[in-house]
Amino acid sequence: xxxxxxxxxxxxxxxxxxxxxFKRLGVDNIFDLLWHxxxxxxxxxxxxxxxxxxxxxxxxxxxxxxxxxxxxxxxGMNIFKALxxxxxxxxxxxxxxxxxxxxxxxxxxxxxxxxxxxxxxxxWELNVSExxxxxxxxxxxxxxxxxxxxxxxxxKALRAIMMNILTEYLHHYPEILGEEIKxxxxxxxxxxxxxxxxxxxxxxxxxRARKRLALEELLLFQLSLxxxxxxxxxxxxxxxxxxxxxxxxxxxxxxxxxxxAQAKVVDEIYYDMESPRRMNRLLQGDVGSxxxxxAALAMARAVASGFQAAIMAPTEILAEQHYLSxxxxxxxxxxxxxxxxxxxxxxERRMILxxxxxxxxxxxxxxxxxxxxxxxxxxxxxxVIDEQHRFGVKQRALLGLKGDMPDVLVMTATPIPxxxxxxxxxxxxxxxxxxxxxxxxxxxxxxxxxxxxxxxxDFISSQIDENAAQAYIVCPLVEESEKQDLIAAVTLYExxxxxxxxxxxxxxxxxxxxxxxxxxxxxxxxxxxxxxxVSTTVIEVGxxxxxxxxxxxxxxxxxxxSQLHQLRGRVGRGNKQSYCFLIGDPHTEDGxxxxxxxxxxxxxxxxxxxxxxxxxxxxxxGVKQHGLNQLKVASLVKDQKLIETSQRLVENLNWANxxxxxxxxxxxxxxxxxxxxx
Length: 678
Ligand code: ADP
Ligand code: MG
Hints:
The protein contains 22 helices and 20 strands. The chain is an alpha/beta fold and about 675 residues long. Magnesium ion binds next to helix 10.
């Protein structure tokens, strides 16, 4: 087994020079090399016929080189072309900035090229992304791996080394699954898997190989989480024992009944708060599912137990709104709620900090201002972070570092399935609100072309006349930018006010206004004095004005799915029918798809999955070095069944005698770093 971790430089045929090349690829030993997964494959058994090429589509063509040509573009870019012919026609293969190809690709060779097709019948061009000159050494293999390379290392050389590794060393790789389990989950041997990942016999063998190695990766990942948990001492923290009736009192006076899902989640949180183990809980719930009240009840529990609580929100508007609604919830009780944001005046800030340190303030609501160093609590018992995805890893952690090991609750409205959440968020416990408050009507979502935008504004003014409706109109930027011809909020505001909405009260809110101005406008909108609120994305998260029933997003194609869903979540909060108009002319297929998906689904879980698929894990969570990014075969989106399987296997098997796996795990997840917690 040690063989697998031996420095690659001592292998047959690999000297110091080669090993330097491998090290540039992050490959130090055989184990790494086996996990150097092909980024694509050539399937030569089934090439496309040149006569059936389609403009704009990808294609893979096999033919003979009839001639080559090197030239230089006006901007000095080298262009290399080769005319490739098969029995149905000819295509010009084009490479950019690879002048050395003139010495590699020559007339008479058989070649395999793939890339994107441009042009028309008779004048096809292929923008080459992959190519392979065919010779005896690779003649007999149908499917060839394409690896990520580095300078000095060719596909051919890497394939030869890989072949050698597979025959000479693969048998050292341990099989961690017993026969029974392999049968039960219908997975192949590890050896078969590696062979067929690198050199698939055929499509079917590749799929079996992929499944097994995806499971292998996920299993090692789950085990790495286990090992870490086993090593870290459970953190002890505050035990919240109620000394007053505050919680019961509050529950009796709630303006509505909790949904079952909310009640269950509150129970889970209380259970954690009572226990001496530190709470580190993620609360997932779709936009509008009612997370704020859950947070408020958690904070009530802390206060009733003689501690302070804090809640941090990503924007001033949201902090202000939380401040008002939390104040309202607690106003029959002797609970002191204060707010601290970036625009709190110096004098007020000093007073708040004093009162906080001496214990006169029970609940502190605020923005990033809460995590500044000089903010000190008397006895912080619970830290809540709302819309956690809007904060950085460090910022989230900082609030938990205030006080002496307070319990921590983080909340998010980009929910993902439980198994995935448990995997991604490592040592966090997960609570899910999977139910909406009663009486909600599904928001009707309509995608509208720019040219039809006026119809939307006409609809709004009739809804205001007939149903006393209120509407948000959201634009992406504050001022006209020269580069992008966005309709800026300011211009739109002025246009609308002078034209369609001449008889209607229109407000404007954006990030550059002072906090007091924002507050004033929000308050007037809340009171119904302003019917149409033109806004930038400052209202994206959390804003809660139940009477508003229309959301218009201008240039909707510029927003991601989660953002659109958040914006849409500002309406549909009461029991009236709500509408969301997405106005835009998407330039890309993806952009168009996003808007269509929005029309079709209101389910935040589904949308988060789409978003994850479109943007990938790193972008979605905004954490690049996360251990999950080291997954090379498994996909967090496509392999959710396997994620479940891996969890079951880790729970049910006895891994005690698998200590040796630690090496593998450490090797595989070199930089494992969890998103939350620390
Ligand atoms: P989010 O989960 O997006 O933060 P909020 O906490 O802002 O959602 O709640 C959305 C709206 O639903 C608020 O107006 C809130 O008062 C209301 N709400 C929350 N829970 C219930 C419930 N159980 N029954 C009725 N309305 C509720
Ligand atoms: Mg919220």
